[in-house]
Amino acid sequence: MGNALQFSAEAHRLSAKEERAIVTVTCLAAFLFFNSFGSIAVALPIIQKQFGNSLSEIQWIVLMGVVTISSLSFCFGRAGTIFGQRRLYKIGVALYAAGAGLGAVSSTFVHLLGARAVMAVGLAMALPMSTAILAASFAPQQRGRVLGMFASAIAVGRMTGPAVGGLLLQVAGWTSIFWMNCVLGLVVTAAVVKIFRGPGEHRRDRFDIWGAVALLIGYPSLLIGLTFGTNVGWTWTTVWFAVAAVGLTSFFWVELHTTKPLIDIKIFKRPMLAAAMITVALSNMIYNPITLSAPLYLQNVLGARAATSGLLLAILPLATAITSPFSGRLSDRMDAATVAICGLAMIVAGIASYSFLGTDSDMVGVALVLALLGAGVGFFTPANQKAAFAAVLQDDYGVLGAMLSSFGTAAGTIGTTMTVALMELDGGSDLWTNAAAYAGAQQFAFKWLVLVGCVGIAVSLGKKPPHSANRFQSRG
User: Fold this and answer.
1) Structural domain containing residue 185
2) 168 and 230: one domain?
3) 248, burial (CB in 10 Å: exposed 0-12, middle 13-18, buried 19+)
């Protein structure tokens, strides 16, 4: 296939107006999805008080989304190839809106949890289809630009979520957050139905049901074990990990022996794709722990007020939102893998700088570190996505979109769990009561994360073949 610009036949028929419509509606949906994560998280204490549930039970409102999205994304990624990516995208956005509406009228915690599950299924269906549709609709020399805009929309959603949720809580209560997501979700659904006419490209094929069953047993068990392992004791942790081992081992066995696998393991023999997936996992592993450690550090060590802490933490997604479009355009003009490596190096530099923050650090220094880290994420994400899509055929776009999101989620959970374990190892019993002990333990843990990031850089440099940006292109 060489460097021929072969991509979806749909892209040949797109006018400039249609291109703008596709980018606009997918970015609006992404903004809404990721805004809801932060806005709903802010409401958890109020929800807990109203329904009288324990903290571990309330956590399932968040965990439901993480587990469902990570586990089902693979299944829907493959299903999109069979039934049509646009069809699944429309259904996913509609399910998200319906779930939000059900959450708004929930009278019990069980009903709310069920509504959250419906939202999560919709997200698991829509998110992998988003990047797959963008990759299939635009020529390779335009792909970086639109993926950069998409990454920027996600960052803005993350940044504004807590503020929007806090404002709605103050004005109208927690149900207003779900009503907002329902109403905006219905608006986006109407726009999606109007813009994405037809099911999109699809083909008759067999769905790997046994692979899906094995994955849905193993992957959620792994995430639950990683998330609750420190709280439920060694017995239950061992059980969850044992179930995960059985499920995931069965999944890989099925994938290697079926003619139509959910994920074709052989595609990882392509150096560019292998490097993109490894670096997605390692980058999420080292920067996701910031979301847990930074708020505690700012408030418990530096004495920042909650409002100040919130503003400082918003710097990271703001820097991502600003740099993502620039990275996308840059990866359209030069080798995308090179841009991604530069972004990963910035992430590692940001984590290294964070590992030197202590009890005598000031707010300006913290702000600069978070800005560097956010800029690194912005440079890395769209360029790495473009390099990954260039390494597979269009038949695998949906599965690739699922892998990009699921690998990142799982690796982020692993990184956060590992960081907490390292901090508890270094800080001991004084970790949560002594500011100096917390600062020292944080430095210890994040210095180990720097080494993990350096492994990612080494993998990227070692796997990057010349002229990698267009090495593989999709079938027309």
Assistant:
1) 1-203
2) no
3) middle
Whether residues 73 and 193 fall in one domain: yes
Cα separations in angstroms, 387 against 3, 105, 335, 354, 447:
13, 43, 8, 28, 29
Residue 450 is encoded by which pair of tokens? Answer: 């720097």
Domain match, 166 and 28 both: yes
- Domain end point (choices 172, 203, 234): 203
Separation between Cα atoms, residue 128 and residue 85, nearest integer Å? 9
pLDDT in single tens digits along all 476 residues of the chain? 333 334 444 444 567 777 788 889 999 999 998 888 888 877 877 887 788 766 566 767 777 777 777 778 777 877 777 777 888 899 999 999 999 999 899 888 889 888 988 998 998 888 888 888 888 888 888 888 888 898 899 888 888 888 888 788 778 888 888 999 999 999 999 998 888 876 555 566 677 788 788 888 888 787 777 766 555 566 777 888 888 899 889 888 887 878 777 777 777 778 888 888 889 889 989 988 888 788 888 888 888 887 787 788 888 889 999 999 999 899 988 888 899 999 999 999 999 999 999 888 888 999 999 999 999 999 999 999 898 888 877 777 777 887 887 788 778 878 887 888 888 888 777 777 788 888 898 899 999 999 999 998 888 887 655 444 444 443 33
Same domain, 164 and 69: yes
